[in-house]
Design a protein that fits this description.
By secondary structure, this protein is α/β, with parallel strands linked by helices. The chain contains 3 helices and 5 strands, in the order E-H-E-H-E-H-E-E. The protein has a 5-stranded mixed beta sheet with strand order 3-2-1-4-5.
């Protein structure tokens, strides 16, 4: 995480690849917006491999999306399937992982 993120206070992370299922990405973005609305921008969003601007536009998400151009985070996580929401502890160790689906909107 530290290779892409310089933000230490964000403990929930959404990682997605722009080639993932659109409805699953949208479900993840919907979840991010709900958490952010409730908890004042607590989620960090990271895109891999492609420019996330069309995902941002489609989901009306106007906060910053980090870009992991070299796919370092997924590589470190043994190329975990995405989109995925991660709950991190204080030292950025993954404590819980959740895969949003298009059925949770």
């Amino acid at each position: 995480m530290d290779s892409v993120l310089d933000v230490k206070d964000k403990k929930i992370v959404l990682i997605f690849n722009c080639f993932d299922c659109e409805s699953c990405i949208d479900a993840g973005m919907n979840l991010v917006k709900k958490i952010d609305d409730y908890n004042s921008q607590n989620v960090c969003v990271i895109a891999t491999m492609e420019n996330p601007s069309n995902v941002q536009y489609r989901n009306e998400y106007y906060d910053y999306i980090y870009y992991d151009k070299k796919d370092l985070i997924r590589r470190e996580l043994k190329f975990v399937l995405t989109p995925i929401v991660l709950l991190l502890d204080k030292s950025n160790v993954v404590k819980y992982a959740f895969m949003p689906r298009d059925t949770i909107n």
